[in-house]
Amino acid sequence: MKKTAQKLRVLIPSSLTVESRDKKVKTVKIGYVARAAAIFKVDSIRIYRDRAHDESDLIKKVLEYSETPPYLKKKVFGLDDDLRYVGTIPPLQIPSHNVEKETEVGEVREGFVLEKFGDERVGSDYCARVYIGLERPALLANCSDVSENQRITVRTISCDDKIVVEKVPQSEVPLYWGFDVGICDLDTELRMLKERDWSIISTSRKGEVVEPNSINKYLSNRNAIIFGSPDESVNQITDRMDLVDQEINTIPDQGTKTVRTEEAIHSTLTILNLNRK
């Protein structure tokens, strides 16, 4: 489960869940998106606001819950009515979720800052207690930018009488570690991605059919893929199609009148994954 070199960002509409009024059904649909993102090692998901329907807060919360390691979910999210039906969605089982009851030096885990020591501990080698899924909290060394109730990535540096960890950036983790989630305005996001030299792809029934021997031409070091809403295609949602590099069709000759967003995500990522490095 090594991470891939070619970055992948998926942009989905805030109207993803508009087809149902049942929060349980909405949760299951969002869970499908989370599973697809994890299976195909998506690095980030952005929920762009759709004027027709906006449930970006719910989508973001369920996606983040799915991506959070099981042992941290209760501490990070507590009780939340929006998460009432998250038990219906399948676990991701990505490397950050699969931890043992014991840790060893060099192991990387996700942690939750329980308590940051006050000024009276100045001079100590440790600055906070961090829950990393063990019976006793670990001690955090050398921290200057953490706060209580914050989720962080840590590496174990000692397992003697005390378990000591240090904070590390996720970019140093060699394994696929999950995805981050954000909410955006689509046109603003497209301008930002273009300025930072991302390749931007939109999916459409009218797009260019992706052939097996042409997949590489759609992939670059940083790839952003936009999916339309249940009611509108990408080019009906944004006025900035001039920023889109490619418009592709990954389901040619489809047998149904429509393809749902979560279905388009699965089919598109499946095809691009054949050549993604």
Key phrases:
six-stranded parallel beta sheet, 11 strands, 277 residues, 6 helices, five-stranded mixed beta barrel, OB fold (Dihydrolipoamide Acetyltransferase, E2P), Alpha/beta knot, alpha/beta, single chain
Describe the structure.
It is a single chain. The strands form two sheets. The protein has a six-stranded parallel beta sheet with strand order 8-2-1-10-9-11, sandwiched between helices. Strands 3-4-5-7-6 form a five-stranded mixed β-barrel. The protein has two domains: 7-95 and 179-274, 3-Layer(aba) Sandwich (Alpha/beta knot), CATH 3.40.1280.10; 107-170, OB fold (Dihydrolipoamide Acetyltransferase, E2P), CATH 2.40.50. The chain starts with 6 loop residues before the first strand and ends with a helix. The protein is α/β, with parallel strands linked by helices and 277 residues long. A hairpin with a 6-residue loop joins strand 4 (126-131) and strand 5. The chain has helices spanning 23-39, 56-67, 70-77, 186-195, 234-237, 261-273, and strands spanning 7-13, 44-48, 108-116, 126-131, 138-141, 151-159, 163-167, 180-184, 199-209, 222-226, 246-249. Helix content is 23%, strand content 25%.
